Amino acid sequence: MEATSHMAFIVAAYAAAGAVVGGLTAWVMLDYRVQLGRLADLEKRGFARRSASAASAPPAERAREKS
Prior knowledge:
Shape: elongated
Distance between the termini: 74 Å
Mean pLDDT: 84
Structural class: mainly alpha
């Protein structure tokens, strides 16, 4: 069995896998930018993340909130 007889299939399979992985990577990166934009828009309109408000509060207020 010669490797050269299957070379076209091997190259096509690697190219297809690379295209799929590249496409998924691009999709995730674009979606990340969209989500950051939406989050910035919500924060600009006055909505805040619960985790951000608790972390930015002074330690005394955080202790009061826990009790």
